[in-house]
Amino acid sequence: MITRKSPSELEKMRRSGLLVYQVLHSLADMVKEGVTTHDLELSAEKMIRDAGARPAFKGYYVPAAGSRYPYVLCTSVNSEIVHGMPSSKRALQAGDIVSIDTGVELDGYFGDSALTVPVGPINDSLRKLLRVTAESLELAIAQAKPGNRLFDICGTVEKYVTSNGFSIVREYVGHGIGTKLHEEPQIPNYVDRQHENPRLREGMVLAIEPMVNEGGPEAKVLSDKWTAVTKDGKCSAHFEHVVAITKDGPWVLTRP
Ligand code: MF3
Ligand code: CO
Q1: Mutate-to-test residue for ligand 1 from 24, 61, 105, 112, highest number of ligand atoms within 8 A of CB
Q2: What residues contact 93, with CB distance under 8 A and at least 6 apart?
Q3: Given this model, what pLDDT does residue 189 score?
Q4: Which helix (H) or strand (E) holds 183?
Q5: What's the rounded mean pLDDT across residues 119-141?
Q6: Ligand 1 nearest atom to the CA of residue 182, by list position
Q7: Three-state SS for 226?
Q8: Ligand 1 pocket, 105 CB below 6 A?
Q9: Which pLDDT does position 20 carry in this prediction?
C-alpha cells in the first residue's frame, strides 16, 4: 500500500527535507582535493545531531547486505555506484566525482537526498555524466503530479539517460518515504513491466534517485557487502530528491 500524507505530515517532511539539503550543501562546499570521505562523515553527523535529528542510514538494516549500515553518509567515488563507505584512507583527488547520500529522521519523518560533486576540474565525459543525471532527475520530478502513473517517472529517466549514451543501474531503485526511510512503491529508473504501475495521487511522497553509469549498466557488490561498483570500472553518478505530489504539481521537499 502506498501511504498518502496529510498537509501537516508534509510540513514535517519538509523540515526533514530542508535539513538534508543544508547538510548536503555544506558537505558539497567542503569537497576539495585532500579532504577524506571520513571528514565529510564527521561533519554530517554533527550537523544532523545539532539539528535535533537522527541520521537515518546509521544502523539501518539492509537484508541484501545482511547487516546494519555503519555510517551517516554513503560516499561513492568514481566507479562506486551507491553505498560507498566513508573512510579516513579515502582522500579525494582532483578529477574524481563523489556522490554524497544521506538521510535524517526528524520528528518521526524521514528525508533522503543525494548529489554528485566534482573534485576540482573533471573531464568532459564526467561533466556530461553529472549534467545528464541531474537533468534526468529534474525531468522525472516534473512527472510527479496527480493523474500520471509511476511509469511516467521511470520511463522519463530511462529515455533521457539512454538517448544521451549512458546506462541505467537496474539493481537499485528509488522508493516511497515517510514515517519509514523506505516505503512503497519501489521506483526503478526504467520501465519494468514486472513492477506495478500505480496512478500518482495527491499526498504520495517519492524519493526519486537516478543512478547512471558512464559505461555499461552492470553492477557488482564488493566483498564488504555494501559498496556497489560498476563492473567495467567506469564512473557512475547519483542524484536524489524527495518529492511530494500535490494538486498544484510536484513539491521538492529536499531543496528550498
Ligand atoms: N539513498 C539510499 C537508499 O534510499 C541509501 C540508503 S541505504 C543505507 O537506498 F543502508 F545506507 F541506509
Ligand atoms: Co533513497
Answers
A1: 112
A2: 33, 119
A3: 98
A4: strand 183-187
A5: 99
A6: 4
A7: coil
A8: no
A9: 99
**Do residues 73 and 82 lie in contact, with contact meaning Cβ atoms separated by under 8 Å?**
no
Nearest C-alpha neighbor of 104 from the set 146, 73, 135: 73
Locate the domains of the chain by residue range: 7-252
Confidence of residue 14 (pLDDT cuts 50, 70, 90): very high
Burial class (CB in 10 A: 0-12, 13-18, 19+), 68: exposed
Asked whether the bond before 188 is cis by omega within 30 degrees of 0, the reply is no
At 125, the amino acid letter reads S
Residue 101 beta carbon below 6 angstroms from any ligand 1 atom:
yes
Using the atom order of ligand 1, give the atom closest to the CA of residue 101.
1
- Kindly list the protein residues that place their beta carbon closer than 5 angstroms to ligand 2, a single-atom ion: 112, 207
Q: Give 131's contacts (C-beta < 8 A, 6+ positions apart).
A: none
Q: Whose CA is nearest to atom 7 of ligand 1?
A: 57
Beta carbons of 115 and 24 less than 8 angstroms apart: yes
Topology at the third CATH level for domain 7-252:
Creatine Amidinohydrolase (3.90.230)
| Residues in Cβ contact with 14 at an 8 Å cutoff, skipping those fewer than 6 apart | 253
Atom 12 in ligand 1: residue holding the nearest Cα: 57
Q: What is the DSSP letter of 73?
A: E
Mean of per-residue pLDDT scores for the chain: 98
156 confidence band (pLDDT: 50, 70, 90): very high
Residue 55 CA to residue 104 CA, distance in Å, equals: 5
Q: Is the CB of 100 under 6 A from ligand 1?
A: no
CA atoms within 13 A on the CB side of 96: 22
Average pLDDT over residues 113-128: 98
